Amino acid sequence: MVSRAAIVLLIGLLGMVYQATQLPPPNRSDEIEPSNGEIHVVSPRIRLGDGRYLAYRELGVPKEKAKHKIIIVHGFGSSKEMNFLAPQELIDELGVYLLHYDRAGYGESDPNPKRSLKSEVLDIQELADQLQLGPKFYVVGVSMGSYATWSCLKYIPHRLAGVALVAPVINYQWPSLPEKLIKEDYRRKLMRWAMWLAKYSPTLLHWWVTQKWLPSTSVIEKNPKFFNKRDIEILKMIPGFPMLTKEKLMEEDVFDTLRHDWMVAFGRWEFDPTELSNPFPQNSTLAHIWQGFEDKVVPSQIQRFVSEKLPWIRYHEVPDGGHLIIHYSGLCEAILRALLLGEENVSYKPRLSSTFVF
């Protein structure tokens, strides 16, 4: 039993690790390291109502002059240092203010032992209020950060000016997913095993992911089982990820943050996204999903099904795209033009038929 669980866990964790490859390593230029080796936090932070601190960084045009204010929600194993590769000229032209923040337990933000779908939303809302973003703002969720974006659509739709979900994760426990679509999907079984271990045997899970004889992330990141050709080319240009090293995973707070985040994303939700109501009935260009047709982590067939259940969401598909589409040249520009201007890039219109095998 342990041997089988260990094998399945290893494969399942690959799916966790790949998401972190979306982002460059955190830039620690804003930290001071004194002679005793301790790290002092110097990034701007807000204090939340429950006493936790949330760290953030601001990019784009000054907030006071911005026409559009966008909060970026990073994915698994990442941080506020993620890049959103839109051209500076476009950002200036459209008057875009970008707010990146460390989700609870990531980077320089305090952990939240009570993390939930709703707590992620409340963090976003309080961050927006304390930084005085106004009554409405945009939210862009990347990969596993999309579960917080779906939750915003559920719990604070009145605060949203628009949303974009980029390679959003699929939770196989959503009741609306038809059995015939997910029955043979091996990822569904992997999620079940990973969830069981994370919930009932975290000690075994911690021991397993810190074993020195396991493959390095450099090997995992180039595994064609999880990435298509274009993704692998992107991975050649991305350095390692400190939060997912065995040394960092040995730290209890790091391991607990990753485990709890995973359990919320793939555990039972209080709602099914496919049953959400349209918060933008007067405008058909304010909600978007961006998906890679060749994504081996989140099958495009399932993403299409979700989009078809929500006709008020515009579905865009990168024909030769894998899971790392956020890094593809031109995609962030297309996201901004679609979200803020309602422009449709014909290059990302979904194919009429699907033949990609998952």
From TrEMBL:
Which superkingdom? Eukaryota
- Tagged with keyword Signal: yes
Entry keyword annotation includes Signal: yes
The AB hydrolase-1 domain covers 70-325
Q: Which SUPFAM superfamilies match?
A: alpha/beta-Hydrolases (SSF53474)
Q: Which residues form a coiled coil?
A: none
Instruction: Spell out the InterPro entries in the cross-references.
Output: AB_hydrolase_1, AB_hydrolase_fold
Record key words, sorted: Signal
Signal peptide range: 1-22
**UniProt name for this protein:** AB hydrolase-1 domain-containing protein
